[in-house]
Amino acid sequence: MHIRKGSPQGIALVTRELTEIARLSPNDVLAQLASSPEGLDEKEAQERLHFHGPNDVTYQTGWHRIWHYFERLRNDLLLPVLAVAVILIFIGKLGTAWIISAVLLASVFFTLVHINRSGKELNKLWSVVGITAKIYRRNLGESRSAETETGQAFRKLPLRQLVPGDVIALAMGDKVPADVRLIKSDNIVLSQLVLSGALVPVKKSADAYTGDATNPFDLANICLMGSSVVSGSGVGVVILTGTRTWLGVTKAWRQRRK
User: Is 236 helix (H, G, I), strand (E, B) or coil?
Assistant: First the structure.
């Protein structure tokens, strides 16, 4: 049976794939993706680019994105708080209810502004040709990349050229350019606000995941396309690119629901 990527089944498929990768050790992840700590060689990368296509996806902003955020509120703390405010109105505590409502509305407003702004910034990553990612690539025939005083050297390549198996460097201020499994981590902390609506940044790790995940946001070693590095640094291997990423399949699903 063919499963459309822009469907709940497609989203579940991507979630399962990310979870399976998350449960592997860094070395096993590299082996499964036929990669290495030094990255892919140029010939293999070009073949994968031809097979998978460019790493390209745009992110929804505006009213449709705002509606998607409100859809998430039923699983957030905001709905219980709103319920408390309604109960206070019914029992005559109008002053307290209005204060809670005002704080609630202010929180929602500033969150929506931040989400929309972040989405526009994310779209610029794919609209500006010069935007690059820091990537490890080997020339044909090299067993490993060149060494510098600070360690392994990386190159800067356009985001569209990223392919599964590429090894990339992430540092503070970077936007995650694909769905990535960390293989090294130095106290890296990510903001997933633009994707999940969660206000609190999360710390990520390169260790194999052993818990029970209900969605990719629970995977402590997975960095999803569109999230941003708040602090720390890390090295990761690209798992999914373009329309096959979590961002890509959820975007396609929302478009189909219009």
Answer: strand
pLDDT averaged over the chain?
A: 78
> What is the number of structural domains in the chain?
2
CA max distance for the chain = 77
Distance from C-alpha of 205 to C-alpha of 181, rounded to nearest angstrom? 9
| pTM higher than the cut 0.90 | no
Yes or no: say if 214 and 148 are a contact pair by the CB < 8 Å rule: no
Strands 132-138 and 40-41: parallel
**CA–CA distance, 258 with 119 (Å, rounded to integer):** 19
Taking 60 as the threshold, does the pLDDT of residue 85 lie above it? yes
- With respect to residue 73, please indicate whether it lies within any of the assigned structural domains: yes
216 close to 247: Cβ distance less than 8 angstroms: no
- Co-location of 164 and 218 in the same domain: yes
Residues 141 and 15 in one domain: yes
